[in-house]
Write a structure and sequence with these properties.
By secondary structure, the protein is mainly alpha-helical. The chain binds tryptophan.
């Protein structure tokens, strides 16, 4: 049985963009494949501590796992949920892979270059991030790792490390699928992205200071509707999808499509020729507030006990699988 594996960091509350663009597609993918694939969903909490965490990390982690369940993740015997730091083999294999990876290839990682840029001193965790990530993946023989584009380079590095290790020691790790195949698997060719509401040239980001520019998953539905009503548009006076000339209006159309799970093309056709931006905003505001209301109601129904019981099973499973693979890697270096 093949393994699909993914993780979402829990440094803070998610935005509507994170939810619709990352979490929800992953939940759909998991549900679609869990009848005949192993699906590992974990929270990379050790990756969180490379930078500041908003709030309490342990609580955030439980909340993130509740998001998965509230978003509709169906858990069966092939689906396992766990926390990275509860499976010590991740850190152990990371160290072994540190001794296989080179400074050169790791220094080339764009995320590291961006995060360390302009910093007076950069912690070693930021540099080592992709090696721990490779351990997360290789411990479980994962083939498909649904993730955003910004992480593709890290998957390529995990592939390189697996191939190098196997060449030196024999077939120990499954080599993850190539980026092109990952993209095909995710059906990401036509992925949509939500933009900043007041500054629609940029993507919606939780780190933007302006509250009106982003919708958070825990926003009051009425408050979220207000933010949509206040979104920046333009003076073209016609509703059209044109990311260059009308990024604000195009963003509203994109949000409507994603929130109502309707093909973007259908939403564009529905509004073609219309001129009243206010009407479009009212519709999108109502769709967003309805979605949030439903999501938050489901979130309230997920209990701590439920999550902790899933973690209990998932972490037992993960430790068993990961320790076996770690043992193989330890034997390769005559540590065992
Ligand atoms: N780097 C991922 C992100 O920022 C999170 C992550 C860490 C991850 N380890 C992973 C995702 C392993 C998939 C597999 O989104």
């Amino acid at each position: 049985m093949r393994t699909i594996l993914t993780g979402i960091r829990s440094n803070s509350v998610l935005t509507l963009g994170n939810y619709l663009g990352a979490l929800l597609p992953m939940v759909r993918l998991a549900n679609q494949h869990s009848a005949d694939s192993r699906v590992n969903i974990f929270v990379p909490d050790l990756h969180s501590i490379i930078s500041e965490v908003d709030g309490n990390l342990r609580d955030n982690t439980l909340r993130t796992l509740k998001y998965w369940l509230a978003a509709g993740l169906e858990v069966n015997e092939n689906v396992h949920i766990y926390r990275q730091s509860y499976v010590p083999a991740h850190s152990e294999l990371c160290w072994i892979l540190n001794c296989v990876a080179t400074m050169g290839e790791t220094s080339r990682m764009i995320q590291y270059k961006e995060k360390s840029k302009g910093q007076e001193s950069c912690n070693v965790g930021i540099f080592d991030y992709p090696i721990l990530m490779a351990a997360d993946i290789l411990l479980y023989d994962a083939e498909f790792i649904p993730l955003g584009e910004d992480q593709f380079q890290h998957i390529e590095l995990a592939r390189d490390l697996a191939m190098r290790f196997n060449k030196r020691f024999g077939e120990i790790f499954v080599v993850p699928a190539k980026t092109a195949d990952q993209v095909k698997f995710m059906g990401m060719e036509n992925a949509l992205r939500i933009r900043d509401l007041t500054n629609p040239e940029k993507k919606m980001s939780k780190s933007t200071a302006a509250e009106n520019s982003k919708i958070m998953l825990d926003d009051e539905p009425a408050q979220a509707a207000k933010k949509i009503m206040g979104a920046t548009t333009d003076s073209e006076g016609v509703i059209r999808f044109d990311m260059v000339k009308q990024p604000g209006v195009s963003n509203l159309l994109t949000i409507e499509a994603m929130v109502t799970n309707t093909p973007l093309q259908d939403v564009i056709s529905t509004w073609a020729g219309e001129t009243r931006y206010g009407e479009l905003k009212k519709k999108v505001a109502s769709s967003v507030s309805q979605m949030l209301e439903l999501f938050q109601a489901r979130l309230n129904e997920v209990t701590d006990e439920q999550v902790l019981a899933l973690l209990d099973e998932g972490e037992r499973y993960a430790n068993e699988v990961a320790n076996k693979k770690l043992f193989e890697a330890q034997k390769a270096f005559n540590l065992r």
